[in-house]
Amino acid sequence: MTATTICSPAVFHTPQNPDCALARASQVAQRADFHRWQVLAQAMDPELDADVQIAVIAKATGMASGYIQSNLVAMETLNALPLLHALQEQLCHLDMHRLRAIDSALSVAEASQLPALDEELLRWLTPTKAHQSLPGARAIARHIRGQLVIIDDTLPEADVPPPPPEWAYSMRINDDGTADLYARFDAQEAVAIDSMVRALAAAEGISQPQAHARLVSGDAQTRITLNLYQAKDIPNAPVFLPRAGWLSRAAGNELANQATTVREIDQMSTSVTTAYSTPEAMEAFIEGRDGTCRFPGCGVSAEFCDNDHRINHAEGGETGPTNLFKLCRHHHNLKTAGRVFYLQDPHNGDVVWLLADGTYVTDEPTGPLSAASKRWLQTVNGRKSARDRKARTRAQAQKREERDQS
Ligand SMILES: [Zn+2]
């Protein structure tokens, strides 16, 4: 990569569109904000009590102590990622909300994993095309979690899972006579429970809390189908569960072992039907390609989205992946009303949105079947193979040494 590539107006995320006055004004404010946090981070003296220093900053700036602390920690984490830091110095495209998301997602990473994560974040957050959609804080956190799950195979598997913290389950009575139940699960367990609740509620025409109560009391049962995605051309490829994301090896294997149907999904990419409704296998392909609603920045999970016929079925638009894209109800309505419009790139699944102000923005699919996910899995697999080869070479050398000594 060269500085020329990054600075060229030919490639940029939309908040850095040099021809957009709104983007330029926002950039000025964002640079000033980033500069402020750089100054504050540099002013922190590691020899002095952090709480006292934060209190001084709070008094001087009027900002809340918690906000100051989380931003300073985010700046510290950025310092531990030299490649991303250099990119941020140059583009200043990540606001503090995104930097805090990076810090929070990396809080469980080992120091030894940071260089690989840094490399990946540099690759992923460097613009590669014009008018590219900039990933939001949640998408960035999801991407890092996926990285961690997959890169994490160097760590020993935990023998005994840690006990859940006390706050992982609680109930709060509200003033209006209602009550909230809170429970924390592993993501894959939560997705399964939530899917059962939604399925029962829809089947019986009852509310989701009612369905939840009936399931917990044993008064009802329901069957659900969860689609899992796993690459067949990569050995021990990780498993992706929609909404939960990439799963740890143990969780992925456990779920994959329960699978009742396995199907080749790639061939669906060119399938077409004359019917209006989408066949089940094609639906699984489109969900797996898109990941979320395809409107830029919208994070609604693909399984809660409608299938939008880009060219209307009544006007000859076919029911097939090249004409079907996931849109949440809100963005589907915007498109149907003609307030926004998109074109698609048949080669990579990108869609280009034409907005009411005459500008456009490119959205890349983010699901496990997207071109970006496939490239990324190949890269991770390449790194893993190289590491395994090194480990084998080391073990062989050690054996030779032991044999020579005996
Ligand atoms: Zn949407």
From TrEMBL:
InterPro entries: HNH_nuc. It comes from the Bacteria. Residues 365-406 are annotated as: Disordered. Residues 281-333 form the HNH nuclease domain. GO terms for molecular function: endonuclease activity. Residues 384-393 have a biased composition (Basic residues). Keywords: Endonuclease, Hydrolase, Nuclease. This is HNH endonuclease. It comes from Corynebacterium alimapuense. The lineage of its organism: Bacteria, Bacillati, Actinomycetota, Actinomycetes, Mycobacteriales.
